[in-house]
Amino acid sequence: MKSKKESFEKSMERMEEIVRKLEEGDISLEESMKLYEEGVRLSRSCSQKLEEIKRKVEILTRDAKGKPAPKPFSPSPEESEISDTEKL
To answer: Residue 70 in contact with residue 61, Cβ under 8 Å?
Structure first.
């Protein structure tokens, strides 16, 4: 069984693999359901990890009085050049 502390990146890679297998359609219905269930678990885990990071970032961006001080996100030049297919 995989560790619950599996990295976000590895979870995302596994979800991509699951999507590829499901899209190919060369597997049984039973195997498709197993993969789908695994994908849902991974998706929830990734969402939870992202929420945890979001809360940490919010804590780190508080002003001197402890009030949230939201700052606009400015992507790096490399991130803003992501192709349309990568955004999907």
So the answer is: yes
